[in-house]
Amino acid sequence: MEPRLLEMNGIQKYFPGVHALDDVHLDLLSGEVHALLGENGAGKSTLIKVLGGIYAKDGGEIIINGQKAEINSVKDAERYGISIIHQEIVLVPEMTIADNIFLGKETGPAANIDRAGMLKKTQELLDSFDMGLSAGAKVSSLNIAQQQMVEIIRATFGEARIIVMDEPTSSLSDKEVDALFDTVKKLTAQGIGIIYISHRMSELDIIADRVSVYRDGKYVATKKVKETTTDELVALMVGREVGNYYNRTYNECKETVLEVRGLTNKNVKNVSFTLKKGEILGFAGLVGAGRTETMRAIFGIDPIESGEILIDGNRVEIHSTQDAMDAGIGLVPESRREEGIFPAMSIKFNETIKVLTEFIGGFRVNAQRENEIADKYMKELSVRAPGTYTLVGNLSGGNQQKVVIASWLATKPRILILDEPTRGIDIGAKTEIYAIMNELAKNGVSIIMVSSELPEIIGMSDRVIVMRSGEISGELERSEATQVNIMKNAVNI
Amino acid sequence: MSIKEKGAVKADNPVVAYMKRNGGIIIGFFILATIIQINTPQFLTSKNIISVLRQISTNLYCASAITMILIAGGIDLSIGAVTSLSSVVVSTFMVNYGFPIPLAILVALAVGAMVGFLNGTIIYKTGLPPFIVTYSLQSICQGIAYVWTGAQPIRLTDQNFIFLGAGYAFGVIPMPLIYLGVILVFVWYILNRTKLGRHIYAVGGNEKAAEFSGVNIRKVRWFVYIFSGIMAALAGVVLSARMYSGQPAVGAGGEMDAIAAVVLGGTSMGGGRGSIGGTIIGALLIGILNNGLNLAGIDSYWQMVAKGAIILIAVYVDFVKQGNKLRK
Ligand SMILES: Nc1ncnc2c1ncn2[C@@H]1O[C@H](COP(=O)(O)OP(=O)(O)OP(=O)(O)O)[C@@H](O)[C@H]1O
Ligand SMILES: [Mg+2]
Question: For chain B, which residues make up each domain, given as ranges?
Fold first, then answer.
């Protein structure tokens, strides 16, 4: 049997009001990929942060190569050969890719670092991932997927023996995922152990050897991937059976609610489409195809150069997000941390910030009404937290995403744009979000769903629009929307 | 994750919440007050207390405005210079141009509002950091105040005007305190009871998310900077009246005293967090510190040293308590 690289036993961790880890176990063999599964808030990221020296554990032991390890800081963790790609991107935006990759590991003498050497090495790494980027480019000029790749490169080059990846693929396109998996295979061949966290169950078969499941801060079980099934894992994770994920009830959609004609700006060209009442319109395409940019333009964030937007057949001028909201549009943005949440504020503040007029008026704040709204949407999306006063920055990644969606549902939009709505969300909550979308559509809300996950596009959409390099490259009715047809339109062949 | 309702930090009633949020500085305030009282028994006389309150009032006008600006994620360094400029404006318009008192005051406040409008607009349009923009306007305003007067004070003799700064309402309450009461209630109301208040916290908490939430960021900027300009100008008017003269350097350093009071009161320099209640106690602490050192006859240069040290300690304690929580 392969030697044990790492063992974590009886780990305990408390946060105010939350017992985040309760007697948690994990072991990792040399050369294996070990997946961690669990619902949002199950404690996966917390366990990893304990391993990485970011949180101090309240109990339990960590054994590395058979020796008890004392990890009290990030530096300690590095010394034990632990390298972590965190769920949230932690790069310095105003520095170059090379500077970020070598941050803290600069080569050459301290007063005269070897810039040229670092640039050259970084360029080699970037090229080996076929990224088409220059090592001297600023990180702030990269999109999320590219930033994620830089994180991956930073964590995987060097002396690490244990590499942790917390949802590395959540914002990557298929091509980049393939490149990542190739790297993972190379690393495991050198005997490096990899801990892999993802909500994409389909990735497990391809990449993982064993999987450990966690629920409500407790360890549930460890299984060999070859000896288990998705259904079994989901049942272990959620504690119950999850039925049909999509469960769409299709309605007849006739009235046109939104029409976009010839929308053009610096990112997109001549985008035209219609959205009907009660329809779910899927937007598919590769990362960078211009889907997010189209939505930003419609929502009044990026200026429009030409083209027009009609709502109920009337032309509307949208120059700001307020204009868009007045027109009945809502947008759940792609990157929740930067654009979606107020981390230092409570769930209540976050959920009600867009509907203040519902409870602030005259000379008073109707606190009761405010609490009602906050409670209602917290429950509707089953946000896991001690209460609506919990700070959103302290929630798990998936629960932050739910709060963003909740805050938009509170505005009762007529047109709801969801940009990657289920990114980073566990399978149980995904099903809940699909059910909510279905319900909204049934009640006449029109939904645009931008998504890079084809199964979800196919399972949820009435119609699918495919984009490629800033333009619409195809429109598919539900009956034609197959994986093959969508991909044909998404890539140029 | 199991949830224990009891151990969680729940929302409390306002008094308890205020004590919790400002506990450290309130304790510090009472310790300092006790030390001063032991050393100089004339500290706790009604005459002295009223004089302290009058002294801190103009600082608090500015500090109230700075509270909102810091919460909205900005900073305003032009405050002291606007105070000086306003002092010059109100005096020259009365003495040289013969404007009636109310009109001269209105002109001074309008000049303050104008500077605030410029601050807000330039920050919004150019995206330059507020630090740089307001620092530049500080220099411009101070320069104008000197050029206009040839750096000479302008003597004021109109007793009606002087009453507005040096007089007492009902024979006991200094006039500047009356204005202060109105201002504090106004700021408290805006921050806690209005949509605009929530938007101020939202812009400071995450500007991009605020934009995505339909917050009119430009409007928020304008409001806080224009309000700040007006408060600084009001301080200039009141100080001129109290000192019987228009003084082109009367506000020098005013922004630092205001920022110190606000930060002492627990408002975060990073935006998104803070309260007017905290600012009040912060300004009181600085006020009694100055007063105590004065009563003890300590040289004013040493007072500067002491003030700096105390602010550093107080803010550090708050920082340890609130912010530095990466490793738990
Ligand atoms: N800094 C913190 N302060 C307070 N509570 C926290 C903090 N970090 C995490 N928690 C809580 O601990 C629990 C576990 O969170 P964690 O981030 O580990 O979940 P996760 O399994 O990674 O979920 P996800 O799949 O959504 O990323 C959650 O209830 C979360 O709210
Ligand atoms: Mg996580």
Answer: 54-291+303-314
Question: If one looks up domain B54-291+303-314 in CATH, what number appears?
Answer: 1.10.3470
Instruction: Give A3→chain B minimum CA distance, Å.
Output: 31
pTM given for the model: 0.84
Residues 131-150 of B with CB under 8 A from A: none
What residues are neighbours of ligand 2 (ion), with CB under 5 Å? A 45, 87, 396-397
pLDDT in tens, chain A (493 residues): 457 899 999 999 999 878 999 999 999 999 999 999 998 889 999 999 999 999 999 999 999 998 999 999 888 998 899 999 888 778 888 889 988 888 877 766 666 677 888 889 899 888 887 778 888 898 888 877 788 888 888 888 878 899 999 988 877 777 778 888 988 898 899 889 999 999 888 888 899 999 999 998 999 999 999 999 888 888 888 876 666 678 788 877 789 999 999 999 999 999 999 999 999 999 999 877 899 999 999 999 999 999 999 999 999 999 999 999 999 999 999 888 889 999 999 999 999 999 999 999 877 889 999 999 999 999 988 898 999 999 999 998 889 999 999 999 999 999 999 999 988 888 888 888 899 999 999 999 999 999 988 889 999 999 999 999 999 999 999 999 988 899 888 887 5
SS3 sequence, chain A? CCCEEEEEEEEEEEECCEEEEEEEEEEEECCCEEEEEECCCCCHHHHHHHHCCCCCCCEEEEEECCEECCCCCHHHHHHCCEEEECCCCCCCCCCEHHHHHCCCCCCCCCCCCCHHHHHHHHHHHHHHCCCCCCCCCEHHHCCHHHHHHHHHHHHHCCCCCEEEEECCCCCCCHHHHHHHHHHHHHHHHCCCEEEEECCCCHHHHHHCCEEEEEECCEEEEEEEHHHCCHHHHHHHHHCCCCCCCCCCCCCCCCCEEEEEEEEECCCCCCEEEEEECCCEEEEEECCCCCHHHHHHHHCCCCCCCEEEEEECCEEECCCCHHHHHHCCEEEECCCHHHHHCCCCCEHHHHHHCCCHHHCEECCEECHHHHHHHHHHHHHHCCCCCCCCCCEHHHCCHHHHHHHHHHHHHCCCCCEEEEECCCCCCCHHHHHHHHHHHHHHHHCCCEEEEECCCHHHHHHHCCEEEEEECCEEEEEEEHHHCCHHHHHHHHCCC
Please report residues of A whose CB lies closer than 8 A to that of B201: 342, 345, 349
Q: Is residue A87 in contact with ligand 1, taking CB distance under 6 Å? A: yes
A198 lines ligand 1 (CB under 6 A): no
* A218, A394, A402, best to mutate for ligand 1 pocket (most atoms within 8 Å of CB): A394
Which ligand 1 atom lies nearest to the CA of residue A199? 25
